[in-house]
Write a structure and sequence with these properties.
alpha/beta; binds cytidine-5'-triphosphate; about 25% helix; about 220 residues; two-stranded antiparallel sheet; about 30% strand; 8-stranded mixed sheet; 12 strands; Rossmann fold
């Protein structure tokens, strides 16, 4: 098949970037995801001819060519946008979705009040987008997740694969310089439900995106 058309007729939904969970009109809880890996994957899938929807959290990145981008802010918005973009042949969950969000957003800026030296924020769990996509009907043929771990990477990644019911999980170690969040380079260890494992990189995220797409393509029936 000609380069640039191998994925034509396939629909990909890719989530990327962090989410921001608002505390009040001027403050939020965020994380250090840059969105680069998800944007690189969306770009690579579009270059291969796929029809790509990119659901992006707040990032400072230009839209890849030939991709339909939907900007969101919070985990709840990302969840709704991803589910609304289904059905798809493949979902790639590269977003660093917040696991917790404030129970309520204060309508006014929280003020320091005299006599208090602590503030208790009540956080509640967000919906798990990846697990919800994996149990959605019709289910994407291939559901791909990421696992950002600081330790015991393989064990945590395999546990996540099973718990969330996904087909492939790309694990990376975070919390070390020159890899993971905010970095241009990364190393991924990709695990599949059937026991398959392969290390990709270290390499620039654009190159990793193509290597991961090769694995996805092989497994897309
Ligand atoms: N994810 C998601 N929705 C959430 C949280 C995570 O879709 N509310 C997805 C991410 O997009 C990623 C994968 O789940 O593909 C792994 O995220 P990670 O933060 O590593 O795992 P958690 O589920 O948060 O598990 P833990 O906190 O135990 O590490």
């Amino acid at each position: 098949m000609m380069a640039g058309t191998v994925l034509s007729g396939r629909r990909f939904v890719v989530s990327a970037g962090p989410t921001y969970e608002d505390i009040d009109p001027v403050r939020f809880i965020g994380n250090r995801s840059s969105g680069k890996m998800g944007f690189a994957l969306a770009a690579a899938a579009a270059r291969r001819g796929a029809d790509v929807v990119l659901v992006a959290g707040p990032v400072h990145l230009d839209s890849p060519a030939d991709v339909r981008r939907i900007d969101v802010r919070s985990a709840a918005q990302l969840h709704a946008a991803v589910l609304a973009a289904l059905p798809a042949d493949c979902y790639i969950g590269a977003a660093a979705v917040a696991d917790w969000t404030p129970r309520a957003v204060a309508a006014h800026k929280l003020k320091k009040t005299d006599g208090t030296d602590a503030l208790a924020l009540e956080l509640v769990r967000t919906a798990d987008v990846l697990a919800d996509v994996a149990s959605h009907r019709p289910r994407p043929r291939l559901v791909v997740g990421f696992a950002a771990e600081t330790d015991d990477v393989e064990r945590h990644a395999r546990a996540k694969l099973e718990r969330k019911g996904v087909d492939l999980i790309a694990a990376n170690r975070v919390g070390i310089a020159g890899s993971g969040f905010e970095s241009d380079d990364n190393t991924l260890v990709v695990h599949a439900a059937d026991g398959f494992a392969r290390t990709l990189g270290p390499a620039p995220k654009t190159q990793l995106a193509d290597a991961l797409l090769d694995l996805i393509q092989e497994r897309l029936p």
